[in-house]
Amino acid sequence: MRSLPLLLTLSLVGARGTLSPWTLHEKRSQIPSGWSRAQQHEPSAMIPLRIALTQPNISNFEEYLHDVSHPDSPNYGKHWTPEEVAVRFAPSNESISTVHEWLLQSGVDPSRVKLSPGRGWLHVNSTVAEAEELLRTKYYVYDHNTGARHVACESYHLPAHVTPHIDFVTPTIHFDAKVAVRPSHGPVVNAAAKKNSDSLEDCDKQMTPACLRALYGLKDKPASAKGNSFGIVQYPPQAYRQQDLDSFAKKFSTGLDGVAPKVISIDGGTDQIKYVGHAYNTESSLDLEYAMGLVGPKQKVTLYEVGDMIEGASYNNFLDAIDGFYCFFMDGDDSTFDPVYPDKHHGGYKGGQPCGTTKPTNVISTSYGWDEHALSNLYAGRQCLEYGKLGLMGITVLYPSGDNGVAAIDQTCTGKGKTFVPSFPSTCPFVTSVGATQVSSGKSVHDPESACDAAQAGVYSGGGWSNYFGMPGYQADAVKGYLKHHRPPYASGIWNSTGKSRAYPDMSANGANYLIAIDNEFATASGTSAAAPVVGAILTMVNDARIAAGKKPVGFINPTIYSKKFAQGFHDVTTGSNPGCDTGGFKAAKGWDPVTGLGTPNFPKLVEAWMKLP
Ligand SMILES: *[C@@H]1O[C@H](CO)[C@@H](O)[C@H](O)[C@H]1NC(C)=O
Ligand SMILES: *[C@@H]1O[C@H](CO)[C@@H](O)[C@H](O)[C@H]1NC(C)=O
Ligand SMILES: *[C@@H]1O[C@H](CO)[C@@H](O)[C@H](O)[C@H]1NC(C)=O
Ligand SMILES: CC(=O)N[C@H]1CO[C@H](CO)[C@@H](O)[C@@H]1O
Fold first, then answer.
1. Which one of 405, 475, 482, 598 is separated from 54 by 20 to 30 angstroms, measured CA to CA?
2. How many domains does the chain have?
3. Closest CA to 589 of 517, 477, 482
């Protein structure tokens, strides 16, 4: 840990702070479902505050990203280095000193204030009583119906002169950002593996690599350009079993029998073997069998295993590991928000948190999602910007759009009006959100696909409009077109009908009834979490072709895929919908729609279009 430089002396303290009025900074409108407020928190308890300092130049963020990722930009593909990103967005000395000054003035001893190495965060070791005074708030303990506990407040305030320098403070109004133990995949149904490896029959009942290759025109075996990489992120207790990957390979993937992914452990992440069962092995079997199967044996697939079995991990734990300028403290710190390492619990991981020492792959696919409203707007916003920074550096970030149509992960909807619940990080305009389609019953791979239908696939593709993020320029025309020609018939109170917010998904891929090897048998699994790694594999093949030709990886793809140059790159999906919240949800339609996005990939056309770009 590093202390603040001595330049921040008491001489900076002036009368300004004391005169400044307090303003409301963040307020939660509801308690996430399952939680209830118990009692006020113990005033003497320790509560380590983390203060996210405002980053400069953010107002130009979309422009910067557009500059390196729009196909008409002369700087297409000229990605930034991590240092360039850090310098552009590092909080200013003024922000650091203003906030520090306020803390000292409020009676906090300088030894208890620390600045993170990337200068993005200030940490204050304080008691609940002090934090309540600093933030003009009250902390409560909340109970979850599973027995979990959480410390939070309902709202908090900051002095007006400090406000422009602080993004947000944690722990405050946010609820646990730890990734849900249950990944967002559909039900698993036992099914005999009757199909042989290249049969294109019954692709409506059992999806296989051969069905996907036929649907999207994929090459059998990519060349594997040196320097290409593709990563899948896994959170505990999910784990893969090598014997399952081998059984799958024997049947479907030549050259992969006995081949393991390249495992990178972050924060004590391991491939746990203590628990076996569909609840523990489905996500990883699905992701790896298809990711590895599609890119073939020459392209190594990286598996990031994040978090130990006790504390688990949040998306931020992963982001800390791959970006040293985002991470908080080299050696971990006390926090009740994002899990902290070394883990103090008995049997927990005792090593530290990697901070920017883990190399990110060109394409990163994560098959988990979260309800947008469980996180605060500002917290989600900060994380979203981080995905945008990865985009600036040429990294593609994929998230599934969710499996419950317009409803939340637990299928509930908020409020009396049954308000739709968007899925984060899909609503972040700087990730590529992937929805799910199916080969409908009785149809073949040569017929157009439809959006996933729960009757056949057990899931409905998540999609809709964010309540937090504004609409990015790259999708404005596509989304306006949908709102004009297929305006959803719902009252404006239950969905974000402003036409000014981020709409998702961006694209889709088949997510229905994937045949997987799991726990020594074959079964089928469905969901957008199948679609995301498949899109990841396809973009990895595009990168393969580009890198072999001396070009850069595709990076952030959204400005590209919505552009006219890529209009032929997708199979438009025009049938199906995504029901939820006692409604029929949204409808798929010609062009972009909030169920299947732009449609499913047409690989030969995508490669052709991407090879024309510098
Ligand atoms: C900010 O402060 C650091 C010392 O902590 C100093 O090296 C740097 O030059 C300052 N930057 C500006 C723009 O004043
Ligand atoms: C925070 O303060 C407590 C009590 O003063 C102390 O025991 C603890 O070591 C401090 N933690 C850090 C990270 O400074
Ligand atoms: C709808 O989205 C906009 C832009 O993201 C946001 O400002 C607004 O608060 C949202 N409306 C609701 C009701 O959440
Ligand atoms: C390119 C650009 O706009 N840079 C600005 C980023 O923010 C710093 C600090 O506010 C300014 O000094 C730069 O001009």
1. 475
2. 1
3. 482
